[in-house]
Design a protein that fits this description.
alpha/beta; Aspartate Aminotransferase, domain 2; 2 domains; seven-stranded mixed sheet; three-stranded antiparallel sheet; globular
Length: 386
């Protein structure tokens, strides 16, 4: 009998540990006949707000919707500019462009991969209305100086916390806040591979502003505030299903354990790779608590070596992913915004160097040993192959 296949994300093993709770909760929703809204969604909403320390949580259909609704609620108009990093997933800037806004890209810090705070102020112009930092791979961008700039120029700060639920940010005065609760609005995704993942799509929006929360809720429900058939604004249809809310409510009680398991796996990876020449292990910013949505290495030999390494890993059955092979400013969809190669050198370099290894709450010491042993062998072979 061969070795058990290692998964990039192992949702099935995680489910096996909470199967009875999840099955019972799903069955209760089905028996209730209340599949949209209702007490199960409200309970999850309240429990997540308590966990986050957020005044309001508005569940929605997915993380992309969360970003779109946040921008709509902030009152941005076509032509307004939104500053966001060039190195992140496509959806962050996609919703900006979708609404007729202009994404203004900033390069990222070469260590944390998050938006380079030193560049933001130089990008602020007369049409700038929003800063949209991304808490990439599981740790917070540096929010305190971002908020100071937002206050100085009267900008709204919307956090993309889709990869960082449970991550914490420590302010200069010692106050600790969860990712997504630091700016004016926070957004997250419950895509199945996320640290808090549903068994389907889902997302949520956070805010401590009561009036803003009501507006977000209204937009998510076709622009309805109180009367079911009176639509106060143009909205969207973006709601979290009750079955997904029931599952997420159970998994929320395990989230701290899941995140601790990810940090433990990251520490084991670090031990294996920290002395390997030409490989940079993930950097931990001092002001944030990493929750390792991804464990991402930098292969300093560049794209050819990185790509050969990945091919070697594929051949040995060790999964890996490239997050992200093309930075946003070089995506064909954004060619009309006037960006060109060479404008964001750090983002371009990262796209040529990064590789992510399996990361989830079910990784064991044996898994890590197998992955790292094969990885180092594949890396050595790649060096000899190019």
């Amino acid at each position: 009998m061969g070795e058990v296949k290692i998964q990039m994300v192992d949702t099935l093993t995680q489910y096996s540990h909470i199967k009875e709770e999840v099955d019972q909760a799903v069955l209760e929703v089905i028996r209730s006949g209340m599949f949209i809204g209702g007490p199960v969604v409200n309970r999850f909403k309240e429990n997540l707000a308590q966990y986050l320390g957020s005044g309001q949580v508005i569940p929605c259909a997915n993380g992309t919707d969360a970003l779109q609704v946040a921008l709509m609620a902030a009152g941005l108009q076509p032509g307004d500019e939104v500053i966001t990093p060039a190195f992140t997933y496509f959806a962050t800037a996609e919703v900006v462009a979708l609404l007729g806004l202009k994404p203004v890209f900033a390069d990222v810090d070469p260590l944390s991969f998050n938006i380079d705070i030193q560049q933001i102020e130089s990008l602020i112009g007369p049409k700038t209305r929003c800063i949209l930092p991304v808490h990439l791979f599981g740790q917070c961008a540096d929010m305190e100086p971002t908020l100071r700039l937002a206050e100085k120029y009267n900008l709204v700060v919307i956090e993309d916390a889709a990869q960082a639920i449970g991550s914490e940010y420590t302010l200069a005065d010692g106050t600790v806040k969860k990712a997504g609760t630091i700016g004016h609005i926070g957004c997250t995704s419950f895509y199945p591979s996320k640290n808090l993942g549903a068994y389907g799509d889902g997302g949520a929006i956070f805010t401590n502003d009561e009036a803003l929360g009501k507006k977000i809720q209204m937009i998510c429900n076709h622009g309805i505030s109180t009367n079911r058939y009176i639509h106060d604004v143009i909205g969207v249809n973006s709601r979290l299903d009750a079955i997904q809310a029931a599952i997420l409510d159970i998994k929320l009680t395990h989230l701290e354990t899941y995140n601790a398991a990810r940090r433990n796996a990251a520490d084991m990876y670090d031990q294996a790779f920290k002395l390997v020449s030409g490989i940079d292990i993930p950097f931990r910013s001092s002001f944030t608590k990493h929750v390792f949505h991804q464990y991402t290495l930098k292969i300093k030999g560049g794209r050819a070596l990185r790509d050969q390494l990945k091919a070697n890993l594929d051949a040995t059955g060790i999964p890996s992913m490239i997050y992200y092979p093309v930075p946003l400013h070089l995506q064909p969809a954004y060619k009309n915004f006037g960006y060109a190669e060479g404008m964001f050198p750090v983002s371009e370099q990262l796209s040529a160097e990064v590789i992510s290894l399996p990361m989830h709450s079910e990784l064991t010491e044996q898994h890590i040993e197998r992955i790292t042993t094969h990885f180092i062998d594949c890396y050595t072979s790649a060096q000899n192959q190019i």
